[in-house]
Amino acid sequence: MFTNCKIVATAASPRNYRAQDPVPGDFSYSLSARSLLEFHQCPRRWIAAKGEPRRPLDKWQELLECSLLTPRQTDMRFAFRPETYVAKALTCPVCHSVTDAAVCRKCNQRRRLQETTRPWSPKAEYCAKWLARAEERDQTVIKPTDQAAAKLALDRLLGERPIAEFADASQTQVWVAGQWRDQDTNLVIPLRALVAYVPSGSGHYARALGAFRTPREAGHGAWTRVCYFGGYHLHAALALDLYNHAADEDRLEFYFVLSESVPPYEPARRQLSPQFIALGRKTYQNLLSRYARCLKHNIWPGYDLDEKGDEIWSVVDLEPWMEQGKADTAAPATTEPDATAPNSRRSE
How many domains does the chain have? Predict the structure, then answer.
């Protein structure tokens, strides 16, 4: 049962959305779909990691997401590292060689202190100071190659008319918060969601919400498996339910804007079926009930359940797909990275 749902902000920064003082295991810790899925995979690991996601976005993907959804924040959140820097160095006036020697051995000319362009080096004084300023401003440093990759992916996304129209009709990065009261334990669990796209309530997408993802492969079969095993149907259902309670609306549809994470960054569009969303709703409700029991009793199971008796070692056995030789039917080894995770601010 949802209570006290509200829209906290629009055009929200993922860093601000993700920041909170409570840690997993605290009663006041606010769960997102991602943290709920991390809890599901291994509660004890999730507690030990203090809620840190396992796979943050690459820096160029973080830049792409910001450029697509909150472009006005780009200059504030990112520092674009140049390829070269200008420094004064002892330069031969004839052959223009640069060394620390006062006289050029080749030309027998006294070197002059001149400005010269050098390749970027984090060991150089100018570069070190530049990186320090970026760190002081809490900016993510973007290399030229990453900037080029993000621009190419963004251009391809915005070149898709349906995606551009969906974006133009939407508010972006809408932060929604609320509470869930668990019937069995009577605990009140804080929840939150960052909804990438909230279309206008009067247009073609009036009953929809949307998310943005950067899968390695956006083909129908491959991404459907990633969607299921990555819990994106859970994210969709939780976002719809939180938003509907916060805005007093009845949105039923959920769309995913996709950009492959490898060149040439092929864009794609997906809509979840009502059945897929219903499964996501059932899944998150079951996980919330399990989470409430763990929270109440402060018991967080690991991968191996028993610590006594004959079953202290978990048995690894053949699975049907192994005997059939169909490795592609197994669950993907990893899911997509987390869009709300922080990155290191410095870069060489």
Answer: 2
One-letter amino acid at 30 equals S
Pairing of strands 78-80, 140-142: parallel
Alpha-carbon span 279 to 246, nearest angstrom: 22
Q: Is the peptide bond before 264 cis (omega within 30 degrees of 0)?
A: yes
334 domain residue, yes or no: no
User: Could you give the CA distance from residue 66 to residue 21 in angstroms, rounded to a whole number?
Assistant: 24
Q: Which residues of 61-100 are buried (b: 16+ CB within 10 A; e: fewer)?
A: bbbbbbbbbbeebeeebbbbbeeebebeebbbeeeeebee
User: 1: buried, middle or exposed (CB in 10 Å: 19+, 13-18, 0-12)?
Assistant: exposed
Residue the block writes with tokens 């929270």: 295
Average pLDDT over the chain, rounded to whole?
90
Whether 149 is covered by a domain: the verdict is no
CB atoms inside a 10 Å sphere around CB 197: 24
Residues 192 and 51 occupy one common structural domain: yes
Is 40 in the same domain as 182? yes
The verdict on 287 and 170 lying in the same domain is yes
Per residue in 204-258, pLDDT (tens digit) is 999 999 999 999 999 999 999 999 999 999 999 999 999 999 999 999 999 999 9
Q: Which residue's structure tokens are 């300023």?
A: 133
CB 165 within 8 A of CB 157: no
**342 within a domain of the structure (yes/no):** no
Half-sphere exposure of 107 (CA within 13 A, CB side): 15
Helix, strand, or coil here: 13? coil
Model confidence, pTM: 0.86
Q: What is the dihedral of CA 314, 320, 322, 324, to 10 degrees?
A: 170
Query: Could you list the residue range(s) of the whole structural domain that residue 249 is in?
Result: 2-58+154-305+316-329
